[in-house]
Design brief:
By secondary structure, the chain is of the alpha+beta class. The protein has 3 helices and 9 strands. It has one domain. The strands form 2 sheets. The protein has a 5-stranded mixed beta sheet with strand order 5-8-9-7-6, with no helix packed on it. The protein has a 4-stranded antiparallel beta sheet with strand order 1-2-3-4, covered by helices on one side. Helix 1 packs antiparallel against helix 2.
Length: 184
């Protein structure tokens, strides 16, 4: 019997870039504190608390999460601020994405205006393209609809093989049954 849930790590480039941003901004605040006579302590504490909260939620929490593949669903996560559950029945196709244009792939949760693609990327390698049967609204992308999702996994061949195996092992759902929902 296969494991109930498989976990797949994603890229960590986003963590590095966000930590660099925090350190640069903290350095700028430190310079302001040093060169400003009688810098208010409360203001410094508030700025420090904001940097700490940003660092925990947007820089450290992506280190603690992974994408999950259950028996009937794909769960994409990025930190504590993004989670989407996609039943296999809602997926039209899933395939390797072309890595040749990866320099243009935005990091993080991004849905460009005028494009039906939602980017859920922590890195720019191991990209996977997912096409939904119907467009879906994502509140993390300002409520915009997306039909395609581009995400990354650290071990793309293992992920695609596991997805194909799990999708192929699904038994048909009897819609007329009392409990016709797929359960994990």
């Amino acid at each position: 019997m296969a494991a109930k849930r498989l976990a797949f790590a994603y890229g960590r480039t986003i963590v590095t870039s966000r930590l660099i941003l925090i350190f640069v901004l903290a350095g700028l605040v430190a310079v302001a504190v040093v060169f400003t006579p009688s810098f208010p302590i409360l203001t410094g504490a508030i700025i420090g608390a904001i940097f700490a909260a940003y660092g925990i939620v947007f820089a450290l929490s992506p280190l603690l999460t992974q994408h999950w593949l259950t028996r009937s669903r794909l769960i994409l996560r990025q930190g504590w601020y993004f989670r989407v559950v996609i039943p296999f029945a809602d997926i039209r196709e899933i395939e390797e994405a072309d890595d040749s244009g990866r320099g243009r792939v935005p990091l993080g949760i991004h849905r460009p205006m005028g494009q039906p693609t939602l980017f859920v990327t922590g890195g720019r390698t191991g990209l996977v393209s997912l096409r939904l049967r119907e467009p879906r609204r994502f509140w993390q992308a300002f409520g915009l609809y997306a039909k395609d999702i581009l995400f990354d996994v650290a071990d793309r061949p293992r992920f695609l093989a596991a997805f194909a195996e799990r999708q192929g092992s699904l038994s048909p759902v009897e819609a007329e049954r009392a409990d016709a929902e797929l359960r994990d």
